[in-house]
Amino acid sequence: MSIPLWPRAASFYADRIDLLVVSFSALLLCLAVPVFVAILWFAVKYRRGSPAERGGPVKREAGIEAAWMAIPFLLSLGFWFWAAELFFVRSTPPPGTLDITVVGKQWMWKAQHPGGQSEIDTLHVPAGQPVRLRMTSQDVIHSLFLPELRLKQDVLPGRTTELWFQADRPGTYALRCTQFCGTDHATMGGELVVLPPTGYADWLSTSAVEPTLAQEGAALFRRLGCSGCHGSSGGGGAGGGGGSAVRAPDLGGIYRLPQPLADGGTVIADERYLRDSILDPVAQVVAGYEPVMPSFAGKLEEADLMRLVAYIASLKPPSGTTP
Amino acid sequence: MTATSTDPGTGTGAARAAFDPRPYTAAGHTLRSWLTTTDHKRVAILYLIAITGFFALGAVGAVLVRLELATPRPDLLSAETYNRAFTMHGIVMVWFFLIPSIPNVFGNFLIPLMIGARDLAFPRLNLLSWYIYVLAGLFTIVTLVKGGVDTGWTFYTPLSTQFANGHVLLAAAGVFTAGFSSILTGLNFIVTIHTMRAPGMTWFRLPIFVWSHYATSILLVLATPVLAMALILIVAERGFGVGIFDPRLGGDPLLFQHLFWFYSHPAVYIMVLPAMGVVTELISTFAGRAVFGYRFVAYASLAIAALGFLVWGHHMFVSGQSMYASVVFSFLSFLVAVPSAVKVYNWAATLYRAEIRFTAPLLYGLSFIGLFVFGGLTGLILASLALDVHAHDTTFVVAHFHYIMVGGAVTAYLGAMHFWWPKITGRLYPDALAKLSVLLLYVGFNLTFFPQYILGWLGMPRRYHEYPAEFQVWHLLSTAGAGLLAFAYLLPLVYLPWSLRWGQRAGPNPWGATGLEWRVPSPPPTHNFDRIPTVTWEAYTPEATAETKDTPP
Lengths: 323, 553
Known about the structure:
heterodimer, A: 323 residues, alpha+beta, Cytochrome Bc1 Complex, Chain D, domain 2, 3 domains, five-stranded mixed sheet, 7 helices, B: 553 residues, mainly alpha, Cytochrome C Oxidase, Chain A, 16 helices, 2 strands, 1% strand
């Protein structure tokens, strides 16, 4: 068995991280080694009984202090900037990503591809294409760690976090949880399988298709009776409270757009707002509507909430109107 | 010499007549005399005994973890037991050993002696803080006896409030209670250093040891209450179902991390600042030379304390915290390296044109520098945003903070023990055995923790009970190193108690050290100074070197 010394790199981004860490380590050694050498040299030269000259006044103390405060700091600032720049790359997905939904729960990872293909503890992605994982947790905080991509991101309950990457080299890599999440934390992992684009297409076509989150959400939306008041334009219903005596806002096309509130404020209808409005509907009521919606707190599982939000986010604006 | 007796209003009349020249150890031999003492030196001994017990307890947790990790498969411990072992190791070592270690043993014993005072400002409060510490320790022991807790020492929510199976409330009660002991000690030190310095003992004549304890005390008083609040909120959610952190109850799980690290990052400096103070004394004494750049070293302690409050977000780069906040926290974390580097450079410069005696305490001091520098530099790698994304929550982080807290703080604690042991007990220990302990410590420590840097960068997460087989070589080396390290810690537990009976008598100043504590007999009398000295010399200068003839008979 060979002794591992350095992790494989599955992407050009990982190569850039490796270059940064090696360069920064070299600078840090340049700063530290002279100190160690000086201490050893002084220790030998000025040991008791040696003939060296001793004592004497200290000269230019302030200048020396200023130099060893400023020079190492300014040199290391270059690496602060370099690391921040790569962090921006990591935090800013390019347009046109392949979006995969990931849900963490004690102690497994579930992933669902845009076509509905689902997998557990394994993640198949195409090489050379930007992939964005949209992640949430059903229980505690987890953290998705892809060491060969030099990436990780915490996965939190009650909100969506994102991690994007472009894996450039096909192969099978590690996928682990790094945020301590309870008894079987160490077993919460599996594989990241990077396939050539054709291989990924083959994999998609041979994998069992489950309904997508949005499709499951649509079924829930009807079953829970939401569609009775919120006329679903995406489903072909009438706008603005059609089909019911109760007036409730049409949800088509509102996702990620500002909505005027009854109290005069404005809110962006993002995932958190949609989620909060299902659980606590009267907190932030859209202008022009009565606070009559019942709360669904305690009646929905976390996964169902995600399905509903995914469905609402997928709705198109009613035809003939501008959002 | 220039040590002149004085009459500042405290050294005359009844107090003078009542001065008892017997050593503090002879002031009473009953258990009751120890448990009701208000003498800062005796309280220090009480702390020494208690924290040594907790160090042993924490070490048992470490041994279990290292034995389990010797093989990739789960074999020795179940996952649940393993989680409880590392949690107990963390809680005990952080709150019941590292935080009280140097301040409550050596700070307690030495600060009044170093500033020329007869006790701390609030002697009874000092004893109370020991009792609070013991009470907190009892909570922790009960937690352990009842089966322990499985959250990690960080108590992250909502795991700790909604999902953990262990005795979270009891463990939180222990840590909460221990916090009050910290606050009272910090308060006592601040008031003592402000108001009880001897005539002529100006701020810039204080030993660096006192400066670092002053900075530490500020952290203890200002940061610990935030930990107490965070723990109360955990109790509110777990015990009473009040929604604070769990999103299902309308809470925010990241809020806890902000509160926790607002305390726990300064807590790192609570552990390492006193260690830096100790090392400064060791270097200066055995170099026979004043500390280079005294004012810079003193101010660096305050700078570390102040900046320490502004870097907590570097624990949260991958948590989902704002990208822009992370950039600022990263910058401030680079900045806090500056005063730490100032200390290291000044220690090195103190050795220049010195006359160096290679005693065991100096070797502990030099080992501290070697290990602390390495821990500090890898801290800069972790402060770099994109690098932390990879290394966060791996054993790279574990290695980093053990280099600071064990390689740094524990090594300095042992250095302090070997330096002031003759003062505390009046006895010398076998120097060769002490030097052997340092050697074992340095080799054993590096063997234990250096492989964890490599493992972490390879992608080995922390708090893993089992791991991929290809990592085993490094884990085996680490476990072997831990065996050596255990030996290095056990050896002083043999020869130091041995010296109490058979060690050579030390005399007031066996090292030829500066500092007022070396002007009184070893062990010091109960009220320290027969006459309060008037200080007319600068710190660490030849005039400050105590001569036997200056000390009372």
